Amino acid sequence: MSTRCYWSLSYKTKQPIPSEAEAADELQKLLADAVRMRLVSDVPLGVLLSGGIDSSTVAALAVRASSEPVKTFSISFAESSFDESYYARAVAKFLGTDHHEERLSANLAANLVGDIGSWMDEPFSDPSLVPTYLLSRFTRKHVTVALGGDGGDELFAGYPTYLGQRWARLYARVPAIVRRGLVEPMVGLLPVKTKNLSFDYKATRFVAGARYDPVARHHVWFGSFTPDQQQHLLTPDVLRSTDDDIYRHARSMWDECDSTNDVERMQSVDTRLYLAEDILTKVDRASMSVSLEVRAPFLDPRVAEFAAGLPADYKLRGGNTKYILKRAIKDVVPRFVTRRGKKGFGVPVAEWLKEKLRPLARDLLSPDRVRRAGVFNPEYVTRLQDEHERGSANHRKLLWTLLMFELWHESFIETPKRIETSVGQER
Asked: Model confidence over 277-305: pLDDT tens digits?
């Protein structure tokens, strides 16, 4: 037997290079056909709508292709910094869709956290799994199939981290004595906020990742524990048995990309790693847990190949992300859609860990329990919890990751062991 890659995205610019107008026109045609094909269904169908550029594009093209009113679905939260329902309603009104919305309290969503371990057959720490599940559950009450906007950020350079790579290169030119002696201490003094993507959180993550190479930096910004923090988190036995380069797989993907442009190389890594192993995994587990099928028109191979083959500055133009996509759909969606910044599908994890989830987190991450498992340093874990609860630091990503690991461990390791021991004793 042999294993080989039968298909991969090529980022080599096609010749001749289409003009921006030609590229925008062709992209709209490809997306329109991709949406039209995925509207074929013998069961009720709708569109997941957040009001962002990707979901709004899918909804708009679905309305154009459908002979019947298109159903759109969104959820809203009482917590304003996490709520995007205003934009979803505005897009739905502009397009004339049959819009459905469910308003939820974030505290209600927090009640689901204890069940997450049983949904996932592997540790999974993306907190947007919770609202994705809630949206899927609500949507399934009305339809059996839904179209979503997944893939747009990876194909068209929509993540702010791509722009952040440019800022990091400029930041690296600042003398080290200024960065470490002035900028980083000043960032550390910023008041700690728990709102979605607050300035202090973004500034702290930026300086934490800026000291690394592009691959490590990108995953420090996206992930939880930096390589330095992992040295404190993991026990000596685990560190001795662990590959010292945890980004080895991502680095090999970076090297395999046929582009010399750093942004396109990171798009390639994200498409193969973050999109496949996080975004699509999350949507698949959350939607199929309620028997909802979700389709992704942006991931039509024709769309992906066309996007990858465009010049890099067609995707990230100055500080403008998704440049060519915005130009392609500017006449089919409301004007504000192409002018909005990216918000993400978040939940107030930072507050949950101080209040609603505090008893669960303190139990699953108690020093005795952590020490028995022998994977994490209990003193370091307790320190993270204490600092977060005092408000001296926002460790939401770190603690959420640890909590999700322990919930998975409880469901798939500890419980089977107890059952096996009980059965053995009965025999």
From this structure: 999 999 999 999 999 999 999 999 999 99
* Domains in the chain: ranges and CATH: 20-158+261-338 (3.40.50.620)
Length of the chain: 427
User: Is the entire prediction scored with pTM above 0.85?
Assistant: yes
Q: Which of 157, 125, 166 is nearest to 271 (CA)?
A: 157
Arithmetic mean of pLDDT, 407-416: 83
Q: For 88-117, write each residue's pLDDT tens digit.
A: 999 999 999 999 999 877 677 777 887 777
